Amino acid sequence: MTPLAKKIDHSALRKKIKDLSDELQQLHDKAEHKLVELSNLVHKVQKGQLFREWTNPETRKPFNSFEDWIRVDVKQSKASVYRFIGVKEHLKLPDKTLELIGSSRCFELVKVAKEKPKQLARFVKEIEKNPALPFFSLQQMVANTIAGHHFDSGRYERMDFAIKVEDLDEVKKAFAVMQALEPVKNPEAASGRGLHLVSLCQEFLSGREERETLKRLEKAGAFVNGNINFKIEE
Description:
This protein is 65% helix and 2% strand. By secondary structure, the chain is an all-alpha fold. Mean pLDDT is 81; it is low at 229-234.
């Protein structure tokens, strides 16, 4: 341990990082819900043409158009506002439900409403049951459902790998072979590639020597609480 590392209160530093990360996530989630609430109100203004009753402070005259009112009062891009109005028309859910779901997840659910409308209620129920459902998990659930699989309420975790350019061909070939042996309907999706990776890992761990090595590692406590508690030496 370096002299600098000895001076640092590791526990306090980790706690501060975690607290800030949690706070940023909460602010992001709050912004998502507030954006939906704002969009719902803006939609009411558009439907009732209420902006025509209000004065534009720049001209001191009534607003000429919905777009002018958005620019002055809403201060969000017209594209964002119209995009969410489109969401309301496709999802046809109560405002409070849309606000609970949040803007990014609403945009994902529009894909379900367009492609698999009968499944929409199941997705909404899943989000209501688990409001903290990670966006990436929802993305994978939507992708799998649209690809033709059964409704999938499983959780997903993104894993990143760095691969040398010269080795990339081997990886692509391995996935192509897996697709030929155990085809999935959407092999280019992240979840599709994940299924192929799982199959490759399962095949690797099925060997006798690999199974014995796995048992030794488990006995040594390498996977306590689902974590890999050993370091591969570089």
